[in-house]
Amino acid sequence: MSLQSLGLTRDQELVYRHLLRTRRFDAGTAEAELGVPRPSAVLDELRALGVVDGHLVPLPPAAVVDLLLRRQVERTSRELARLDGVFDVVRDLAEEARRGRPVELVERLEHSSEVNLRVDALPDRAETMNAKRLPRSPGHSEEAARTFRRRLTDGMTSRTLVGATTLDLPEEMAYARLMHGSGDLHRVTAEPFLPLLVIDRRIAFVLVDPDEPDAAVLMIRQPGIVAALVNLYEALWSRAADLDALDLSATEARVLRALAAYGKDETAARELNMSLRKYRAHVADLMSRLGATTRFQAALRAVERGWL
């Protein structure tokens, strides 16, 4: 098998084999024996590829084959990524035929509710990247949540970034933990960010006015803009805290101590000067966070974590 099938040129392979045999390099001899014009230039190419080191010592054949194979795999991956854009064109053409007008690279949707309709119309979603102030919107539908969890079960990957204010809302935190446990990985950030939704790294949705959740939305297909938004999301995600790693808030710590100290919810809520409904919401969230099915089990696991 020739090394040319792994990416070397004919002259590069001849010079490499020559070095393996002779363990030294003489430009005149190499040119005469191999018939390779400008062998010194070819040697520089081999050094740049990493096939020959700075002392003109050739890498062992196994190492060279491994190196060239990895380069081929990387080159093939880049080509596949480029060809993946062809499917975007097919989708756009199909959408253009369905709607009877050109598909715009940046389209304005007059109401945020239109986003769900557009997202649901996308076939075979593989990846979702979400950044929002709260785990769910005011118009949240339990049926929509169940449908989303079914997609996760079917193999879709999803990440959701939420604001730190989530920590102060037990109902929202409980929902975030539910979705996190279902496979929609959640992280929490204290950094300011703009609400964002990216589907399969090719379509992005952003609010025209971030302070108006029900305002118009931009649906963006322009690859450069989408790539910039994906990079922004990845940077925020890398600095955010994993939901499972968050420390207890002061309120959660007080609830946990009350849970261990009082047998009745009414007594615990009264001691905390908190409504019974809010106290029970905190307890439910803590149990979900601890993976406990009973309050006794929650107390034991809290001790194990050093929370009590």
From TrEMBL:
Coiled-coil segments on the chain, per record: none
Domain of life: Bacteria
One Gene Ontology biological process: regulation of DNA-templated transcription
MF-aspect GO terms: DNA binding
Stored InterPro entries: Sig_transdc_resp-reg_C-effctor (IPR016032), TrmB-like (IPR051797), Tscrpt_reg_LuxR_C (IPR000792), WH-like_DNA-bd_sf (IPR036388)
Record has DNA-binding as a keyword: yes
SUPFAM superfamilies to which the protein is assigned, alphabetical: C-terminal effector domain of the bipartite response regulators
Keyword Iron among UniProt keywords: no
Residues annotated as domain HTH luxR-type: 245-302
Keyword annotations: DNA-binding
Membrane spanning residue stretches: none
PANTHER family: HTH-TYPE TRANSCRIPTIONAL REGULATOR TRMBL2 (PTHR34293:SF1)
Stated name of the protein: DNA-binding CsgD family transcriptional regulator
